[in-house]
Structures are given as C-alpha cells and as structure tokens.
Write a structure and sequence with these properties.
It comes from Mohoua ochrocephala. With 168 residues, this protein is an all-alpha fold. Helices cover 68% and strands 2% of the residues.
Amino acid sequence: GGGRRVFSPAGEFREFSRRQLRDMERLFRQYDAGKDGFIDLMELKLMMEKLGAPQTHLGLKNMIKEVDEDLDSKLSFREFLLIFRKAAAGELQEDSGLHALARLSEIDVSTEGVKGAKNFFEAKAQAINEASRFEEEIKAEQEEKKKQAEELKQRKAAFKELQSTFTQ
C-alpha cells in the first residue's frame, strides 16, 4: 500500500469529546452531498447558506485555503475538524467564514474553561427557572379552581339560607 496512515479523529483531536467529534462528523456527512468524503466549494457554499451566513466565491475559497493542508481545494474530514480546533483555540478571525461556520454549527467547542462552564450553568439555571415557572402556573391554576369551588359552595349555602327564609 501507499503507507497512508488511517486518520483517527479521537487520537489526533484529543481536545474534543467523543460526542463533539460525533456531532462534527454528522455535520460533515450532512453537507458532503457527493458522499465522496470531501466538502468541496459548492457543498461549502450550500452549507454556509443553510447556516445563514452565505459567503462570496472568494470568501469560500479563503475558508478552504485556511485549513486545506493538502492543497486539493476541498475539505477532508480532518481539515474540517481543524476549523473547530482553530475556533476553540481562538485562532479564527472574528469576521471570517470559518469563524461563522464554527459558531453557527451549534457544536459547542468552548466547553473547556470558564466560558463553557458559564454557559452550562446559565442553561441549567434557565431550565430550572422554566420548570419552576411551569410549577407556579400549575399551582396558580389549582388555587384558582379551589377558589372557584369555595365561591360556589358559599353561593349554594347563601342560596339555601335565602330559601329557608322564604319557606318559613
């Protein structure tokens, strides 16, 4: 054989969890329309449009150039992972297409460090707030029903009392 080493994402990209790597692979496969194991210029164009950050032809070429190590003008899965490595390391220009791709792909590569923890706790707090708000709404509904039942009972009692004054 040509002695080409088989690429092992988990081995080479140790900074990412297996879950993150699975998400990245799913994303890569989703946009590898030709199913040839590469994302070419047209597929990248479509991907960026779908992510809501359309790029110019030149912008797309520059995106590929930034991580295209073998200079074949398309992205292998390994080169695709380099986008997220650079994003996590803060090596992407804020206004670059790759930065937009990493940000909009909804794969959170910032789990390391304070930002990830902060986001995690914020999300958790929000979930707790929503759950307790839901419980409060249910409680309020139950209180309202109890109040209505109580009023009905009082009205019936008042009516009975009124009736008895007439029947005497």
